[in-house]
Automatic annotation (TrEMBL):
Protein name: Phosphoinositide phospholipase C
Organism taxonomic ancestry: Eukaryota, Metazoa, Chordata, Craniata, Vertebrata
Pfam annotation, one family: PH_14
Record organism: Charadrius vociferus (Killdeer)
Catalysed conversion reaction: a 1,2-diacyl-sn-glycero-3-phospho-(1D-myo-inositol-4,5-bisphosphate) + H2O = 1D-myo-inositol 1,4,5-trisphosphate + a 1,2-diacyl-sn-glycerol + H(+); a 1,2-diacyl-sn-glycero-3-phospho-(1D-myo-inositol) + H2O = 1D-myo-inositol 1-phosphate + a 1,2-diacyl-sn-glycerol + H(+)
Listed GO biological process terms: G protein-coupled receptor signaling pathway; lipid catabolic process; phosphatidylinositol metabolic process; phosphatidylinositol-mediated signaling; release of sequestered calcium ion into cytosol
Requisite cofactors: Ca(2+)
GO terms assigned for molecular function: metal ion binding; phosphatidylinositol phospholipase C activity; phosphatidylinositol-4,5-bisphosphate phospholipase C activity
Subunit structure: Interacts with RAC1. Forms a complex composed of at least WDR26, a G-beta:gamma unit, and PLCB2.
SMART domains linked: C2, PLCXc, PLCYc
C2 domain boundaries: 638-764
Length: 809
């Protein structure tokens, strides 16, 4: 490949490689200089015309770009990386042969998209450090000790002591031969640098007293008692047997003699608890595992607000790249604020109206969406238009761009099985695979003839299709406000205008009510997602038009869900709702999405450019189910025969209790600092105590701090399918270290290492927390005896006998 830089206008021949374990993409220059890119930081790969093309004339000449028969576009490869969706770097390559870049692009993304890339075991992350050290060799082909100090910067003296314990040089100008630092020596180095006294304690409590090892029987008992979900059926999920655990001893025990004897040492226990068998996440929930054949309204849909903005709502920069990044992150509903373009081009634009945010061309946004829509997920994408283009010509242009650029991806007609009739359910995500749906106002009020009579200035009484049914005022739940993006229809005023006023309106290029031709162009593209002004839950139920959607600001939606929670849930069983941030969030902050998920709102739209706690929760939850952007709602939020009130505790089938002990941390900071951990439960309002925090560590040790505290108890989690645990590590003084948000239904019981994520949900290599988690069925105190009697009758009756003997005595 050639590597070229737009900034320096230079091109250099390089060799591009991926290390054998798939941790890093790296390229070597002829000078032997090496550049390394962490695979987890890669967000996209682009080829052909979507890759970056050299701008300066010098580079264009080097690559024969302006030749009539240039094959340059068959050789391009751009790799996009960055710590978040806004701060991006583009690495540009040109291959010597055609179509080489294409296969590289596909293979790189296959590694990036593998769920285990982000959710690897603790040991895999430790292995990653060794791989990097062995890639960064000096001119003599050795590992500079300086690099080891840089990799573990928190306590230099401890690093020196650990190197000495392995009989390795420890001077900052020394270097280590890679052969002298194999995996076995690296493990010894880590055990000396980061001893694990808390795991030694666990080991001691489960092995033969006075013997420094665990037998196969002890290990099997430990796995069944501590690492296994107590709710599993023994017949369907048989417990581990001693002969099965021999393979684990062979895999993790460092001593060959112990392996022959079927024994596990304390060090073997450490590596076993760092292995993939003890991942805190149920990996089967990361892949696509849910039923995707239910109506669209039965899913939570990953949704973005003002997608084009990279920063604030008032003066931020707009970019088509944000559409790509949101879609690549699994978002399935993006927003386009469309405004009229200025002469002479009259190209429609996207911007945040009446603010100082920059503009982008509508066409550029559509091209970005077309290229990125189905890279991460094949399930349908919804384009939510906020349409302020009051020009028939420009709206026709918008519709034409959608048709030509999206092509067959655009759903222009309803599916035969799902006509747009009252009572007919919406199609499923599976029915709409690979399709783009448009949410734009659909004009059904004025026919073509009426348009002509309007032009002649006649008084017209337009038909208003969306007439609310006459009802008693006290029986009706009125929503009052109109959603921002639903401009009031102005048809009712037209009858009162004289010819002069109509001409004046037309000379100003009209208002929403006059743009019938334009509306017809865009209207014809709208089918299953038709926005209307919300009247009331009763009116919606009577009309039963399941293809109709209403948008609510967070304030309006909060008002409705607190006053009418059951009706809101019922509404969301049938049809869709979209929630978006209130207009005063000029800093692009987000509201907590949980309360709107609790009533079944499908499109809870957030500002994707702001990685605050709400967005972290959204990113973490939608990582599951194959990152497809759709999560099936709980059956209580789908079935018409079940009533669900998120504020009530009645009628819920599965209630669980959770216990979480924060035991220790590993490599939490680059500095020697005191640290603490916070744990929070997101769920239904009636779930028990939600937030805990550990004490600050007694000493400034960030390499292996230990907390000896009472377990955090969440004794009642009402609907585990809706709940998630957020665990955050902090430095003293409140500096963020890393966090993890995990859905309760995807958590494994037992001792686990939790590898932390950055604020933008990217995996961090170094920091982890070691915890003990227990998830079990919730049992009210009054039923405790009966539960024991049912689960273990022999034990129960023997206890009863002992009690009666004591009473007699």
């Amino acid at each position: 490949f050639f590597f070229f830089s737009q900034e320096t206008a230079s091109a250099s021949p390089v060799i591009l490689r991926v290390d054998p374990k798939g941790f890093y993409l790296y390229w070597t220059y002829q000078s032997k200089e090496i550049e390394i890119l962490d695979i987890t930081s890669i967000r996209d790969t682009r080829v052909g015309r979507f890759a970056k093309i050299p701008k300066c004339q010098k580079l264009r000449e080097v690559f024969n770009l302006d030749y009539p028969h240039s094959t340059f576009l068959l050789k391009t490869l751009t790799i996009v990386s960055g710590p978040d969706m806004v701060d991006l770097t583009f690495h540009n390559f040109v291959s010597y042969k055609e179509n080489v870049g294409k296969s590289w692009a596909e293979d790189i993304m296959a590694i990036v998209r593998n769920p285990l890339t982000y959710n690897a075991s603790r040991y895999t992350f430790l292995e990653k450090i060794l791989v990097k050290l062995k890639m960064q060799l000096n001119a003599e082909g050795k590992i500079p000790v300086r690099n080891i100090f840089q990799m573990f910067p928190a306590d230099r003296k401890r690093v020196e002591a650990a190197l000495s314990a392995c009989h390795l040089p420890k001077g900052k100008n020394d270097a280590i031969n890679p052969e002298d630092f194999p995996e076995t020596v690296y493990k010894t180095f880590l055990m000396n640098l980061c001893p694990r006294p808390e795991i030694d304690e666990i080991f001691t409590s489960h092995h033969l007293k006075a013997k420094p090892y665990m037998t196969k029987e002890h290990l099997a008992k430990f796995i069944n008692k501590k690492q296994r979900d107590s709710r599993l059926n023994d017949i369907l999920f048989p417990p581990a047997k001693p002969e099965q655990v021999q393979s684990l001893i062979e895999k993790y025990e460092p001593s060959g003699i112990n392996i022959q004897r079927g024994q596990l040492s304390p060090e073997g226990m450490v590596w076993f608890l760092c292995g993939p068998e003890n991942n805190v996440i149920a990996l089967d929930k990361l892949v696509l595992y849910q039923d995707m054949t239910q109506p669209l309204s039965h899913y939570f849909i990953n949704s973005s607000h003002n997608t084009y903005l990279t920063a604030g709502q008032f003066s931020g920069i707009s970019s088509p790249e944000m559409y790509r990044q949101a879609l690549l992150a699994g978002c399935r509903c993006v927003e386009l604020d469309c405004w009229k373009g200025r002469p002479p081009d009259e190209e429609p634009i996207i911007t945040h109206g009446f603010t100082m945010t920059t503009e982008i061309l509508f066409k550029d946004a559509i091209e970005a969406i077309a290229e990125s829509a189905f890279k991460t997920s094949l399930y349908p994408v919804i384009l939510s238009f906020e349409n302020h283009v009051d020009s028939p010509k420009q709206q026709a242009k918008m519709a034409e761009y959608c048709r030509t650029i999206f092509g067959d991806m655009l759903l222009t007609e309803p599916l035969e099985k799902y006509p747009l009739k009252p009572g007919v359910p919406l199609p499923s995500p599976k029915d709409l695979l690979g399709k783009i749906l448009i949410k734009n106002k659909k004009n059904q009020s004025i026919s073509g003839k009426r348009q002509n009579s309007l032009k002649k200035g006649r008084n017209v009484e337009p038909e208003i299709i969306e007439q609310p049914m006459p009802m008693d005022a006290e029986d009706t739940v009125w929503a009052g406000d109109v959603a921002e993006e639903e401009p009031e229809e102005e048809y009712e005023h037209l009858g009162n205008l004289d010819e002069e006023e109509i001409k004046k309106m037309q000379s100003d290029e009209g208002t929403a009510g006059l743009e019938v031709t334009a509306y017809e162009e865009m209207s014809s593209l709208v089918n299953y997602i038709q926005p209307i002004k919300f009247d009331s839950f009763e009116v919606s139920a009577q009309k039963n038009q399941l293809y109709v959607i209403s948008s609510f600001t967070e304030l309006k939606a909060y008002d409705l869900l607190t006053k009418f929670p059951v009706q809101f849930v019922e509404y969301n069983k049938r049809q869709m709702s979209r929630i978006y941030p209130k207009g005063t969030r000029m800093d692009s902050s987000n509201y907590m999405p949980q309360m709107f998920w609790n009533v079944g709102c499908q499109m809870v739209a957030l500002n994707f450019q702001t990685m605050d706690v709400p967005m972290q929760q959204n990113m973490a939850l939608f990582e599951f189910n194959g990152q497809c952007g759709y999560l099936l709602k709980h059956e209580f939020m789908r079935r018409p025969d079940k009533q669900f009130d998120p504020f009530s505790v009645d009628r819920i089938d599965v209630v669980v209790a959770s216990t979480l002990s924060i035991l220790s941390g590993q490599f939490l900071s680059d500095r020697s600092v005191k640290t603490y951990v916070e744990v929070e439960l997101f769920g239904l309002p009636r779930d028990t105590k939600r937030k805990y925090r550990t004490k600050l560590t007694s000493s400034a040790n960030s390499i292996n701090p230990v907390w000896k505290e009472e377990a955090f108890v969440f004794e009642k989690i009402m609907m585990p399918e809706l709940a998630s645990l957020k665990i955050v590590a902090w430095e003293e003084g409140g500096k963020f270290i890393g966090h993890r948000v995990i859905p309760v239904i995807a958590v494994h019981s037992g001792y686990h290492h939790i590898c932390l994520r950055s604020e933008s949900n990217m995996p961090l290599t170094m920091p982890s927390l070691f915890v003990y988690l227990e998830i079990k069925d919730y049992v009210p105190d009054a039923w405790a005896d009966l539960t024991i009697a049912l689960s273990n009758p022999i034990k129960f009756f023997s206890l009863q006998d002992k009690r009666s003997v004591k009473l007699k005595d």
